[in-house]
Amino acid sequence: MPEHYIVSDLCIGAGETVRTVVLASEVPLKDFSTVYLDNHSRTSVVLCKILSKHYWNITPDWQNFTGDITTYPRTGRSAAVVIGDKAFGMQAPYIYDLATEWRKFCGLPFVFACWVANKQLNEGFVNRFNEALAKVSDNMEKIVDYYKDRAPAGVDLFEYWTKNISYPLTEEKQKGLELFLKYARCI
Question: For residue 178, which phi and psi values (nearest 5 degrees)?
Answer without folding.
Answer: -60, -40
